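Hi team, as promised in this morning's meeting, here are the two structures we talked about. I've kept the exact order from the run log so nobody has to guess. The first one is mostly here for context; it's the second one we should focus on when we meet again. Sequence first, then the predicted structure tokens.
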Amino acid sequence: MTAIRLPADQAGLTVVDWRDVPGANVVRHVEDDQPCLVEREVRHQGEPILLVAHADRERLAAARVEIDYARDQPLLDPLASDRVHKHIVIRKGDLAAGFAQADLVVEGEYRTGHQEHVYIETNGVIAVPEPSGGITVHGSFQCPYYVHKALMHLLAMSAEQVRVLQTEPGGGFGGKEEFPSMLAGHAALLALKARRPVKMVYDRAEDMWATTKRHPSIVRHRTGVTRDGRLVAMEVEVVLDGGAYVTLSPVVLSRGCIHAAGPYRCPNVAIDGRAVFTNTNPNGAFRGFGAPQTEFAVEVHLDRVADALGMDPVKLREKNVLRPGDTTATGQRMGQDCSALAVLREAVRRSGYRRKRRRLAGTNRGIGLALFYHGSGFTGAGEVRLASRCSLATTEHGVEILVASTEIGQGTRTMHAQIVADTMGVPYDQVEVAVPDTARVPDSGPTVASRTCMVVGRILQRCAEDLKARLDGLSPAEHFARHGRVVVTKQYEPPPGILWDEATYAGDAYATFGWACDVAEVRYDPDTFAVATERMTAVHEFGRPIHPVMARGQIEGGTAQGVGFALLEHVVMHDGGMANAQLTNYVIPTTLDTPRLETVMLENHYPYGPFGAKGV
């Protein structure tokens, strides 16, 4: 930027720039590289520079701000970028020796683009300055304590001066994990300067244009296989477009790389991943967190390997699928909670895959499948570092759950209340769930990474067991009436035997995995080449479902998003910005596009989850 010209008449306007930031002018994420308000260099089209507020919308709309720029050549091609946000290397066995054993080597490159979250409710916050000099922020968040920590850093305030409350949002899908810290910072800065409450809610076009997306990916595979279909070498290169700032790219790349070899047994594996800089909006969390990109690539690639061998793709998968005792690319040994073969065989049986594959050959219809897995919780020692805490308290009505885990449409409140009610043996309607409020609830970690049921739910179960033992046979309400409030707090305890080396990316990446196999029946129009999905069979194993109806809803919703990502959704980029930032031009699946879906949930109880549950 070379110049900023503000309106001549600034009566009633509140204007904030980087000089008004009392603390560090950064949005606290994995790294502190992203400014809350730009000082000089603008790295992408959606970068915030100036905040302007007024009590009258029409007066605000008439306030014209002009900015002059000295233009530079943008970097838009991730493969041309030598600025690396994160680099990850995974090694297993001897790759050269593996390829020497191979009778056939198959190579392929697979690409995915951006994906927009399209949650029903856009990002929005209300910031209220307190007479004490602190700030209270209400908003559409997934992670209140992320926002809390970011505001403390930005505003140079203590933990007690910053209060963050989540208002139940209309969806998140990862899009309300890190970005709300930016929006909350903007609203708080305006509120503190104006000395009055400030409401900031993005309209749909603003939300689509400015916020994070799923990382575009380029994944290259080189696979060595014997004539009978045994995988002997897998070489994978993963490139993610991280955009202009780091945000959550290291974590997304981490999960993507760990899952890049798929749920398969291979003695020799080399995975190299990097998330790189481009002059586009920073990309961030989105359902699956990097794994959908890399697992899509390995599944398509295995179909090509099967084709090159002249082998049925199911037979190839059955021959190489992980079983108890096998090790993943990171060297994690599978236990009895490994259900890869079970979900594969059940999906093939339920869908009539083999019969339909023979019948549909040579027609404009087809059938295919994908086998996948997903680690529950944070990678490696991530959960230990978080040290999540949960509390239960007796009340005059029963029990109150005090956690920072948020309800974003996935059923957190219901599921947590079920776990506590069933553990304590009290009626469900006597269990209340507190509003996620950083002034009241402990930090139970973010609502991400398929951890809210398995990790937080297990901590709550331990709290409930302890609280029940303290009640001396009385109901919670009776005990409260006689003895007053009793509070039990527990902290995360890792399952035994989890060993992870962050330096070498080797060991137990996750405490456990969920397993799934989806079969899709499709038809295509030979004139337009349009593809439609007619029917899907989804077989999932994630321990014991705490609430089967809501779990089924998660599978159905994820399937619809997958259909959209594969067939309909396309972010059009122009000069590094989203050119089709409106729902008239960004097409998402409707009920007419969503296939008939048979959902099957297999149970394989995980001993360290609440009632045997993992993450969906």
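And here is the second protein, the one for discussion:
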Amino acid sequence: MLFLRRIAVVFFVFTSFSAAQNSTCPLDFSVLEPFRRPKPDGATTCQYLLQGLRLLYSHHLRQTGSFLPPPESAASCWAALQSSVAGFLPRFDVRSTCGFQTPWISQGCMDITTRSQFESLIPNSSLATTAMRCNTSLESNTPCASCTQSLSAFQPYLSGPSLGNVSDCASFPSIYAAAFANSLGPTDKGTAKCLFQLDLASPTSSGANKVKVLVSSFSVLLVASVLVITAWFWYCRRKKSKLLKPRDTSLEAGTQSRLDSMSESTTLVKFSFDEIKKATNNFSRHNIIGRGGYGNVFKGALPDGTQVAFKRFKNCSAGGDANFAHEVEVIASIRHVNLLALRGYCTATTPYEGHQRIIVCDLVSNDEEGQPVSVADWAWSLVREGQTLDVVEDGMPEKGPPEVLEKYVLIAVLCSHPQLHARPTMDQVVKMLESNEFTVIAIPQRPIPLVACREEIDRSVSSSSGSGKLTSPTGYQAFSFGGDGPSGNTNTT
């Protein structure tokens, strides 16, 4: 009898273990079918799988209220993922190639598993801001930047360790926002692109693709044959006529060396991603000195001890690296009191972080003394704070009416605007100065600096929600340009 009981216990344990091992994965992998599939290379494929898993987490959270699948279903979830990619990557092993471990798919940030646990850690004000900014279509850049900027306020409350970058604390805000803050859901085209960097695949059929390939191949072959025959006849006739004269290669050499000469004219350094990770202590959150919708700013030290700032951009792709490098070279060749000196940049693609673009600037403290300050920036800051008359020197004799002085200050600020198209012509300035009625000019907002901090971007976004322009605090009507002179309502209040 005792022997039979032991056999029954062993059978029960074995059955329970087998059931746990074969637990069905609750993630719906068919959600990923409409999205564009990556090319078969390690870096982009692992990034696609990582972002795809996060989109699946968000869809699962929206359906069930739970962030992650249960631990007993980890093996079956990996098997389901492997099966879903086998159609376009038949010899690609997900876990061994990307370095994922089996338990990671069911482990998350700070042991958070449900929506209520997540919301209990975040202030209600931050949740409300995210719900307001993210509850719209995120296809265009402006609402996407506003939404992702609001999510950066969640990070100080999610300080747990990272577990393989599959469902780490940095990804939980996007997973939550796509599930609940955005009414369109994580599978929406704009939401998937903005929060998970996933694009929908083109709807063309396979038959149409085959026809296009055949037509393109025939056209290329025909053109190549004509070119080869033409080149052969031209070569034969040229060989019979006379020897070729030496070519003047000075113009070609000059064209090829333009970009090289620009690099030589600047001291710009192209840093490796590992060098920047070491300088910022692996992008530690303690090194963050600025947050924004387009990326964070980290402080760090170069090997020689120089303190610098690293601007790490978000949502980058490798397609625009050439233009990015050229623009950085141009900016580095300019010296101006209002521009920080650029030391270098970095463009790289990593298996876990994806494509990276980083610029390295001199670090300038806000309280650093002896730094040159532009008079135009100083006047702009006073006008922006509603202290227009503080620009005028106190000891100036015969100042005149305050309305006239305020008008002169606003005209001066408008004439010194950093964007050329926002400045008036001399004829327009003369007409404004000669006008007997006190009108106030609507001044366009200045562009956000390259290393803008979170407060500057917040201020720009809040101001753009109104008129988007800077006006006088005294209540005068705005003065606008039309044709070759000023026009508009010139009545005063």
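Starting points for discussion:
The chain has four domains: 29-196, 205-234, 269-362, 375-487.
The chain is about 45% helix and 10% strand.
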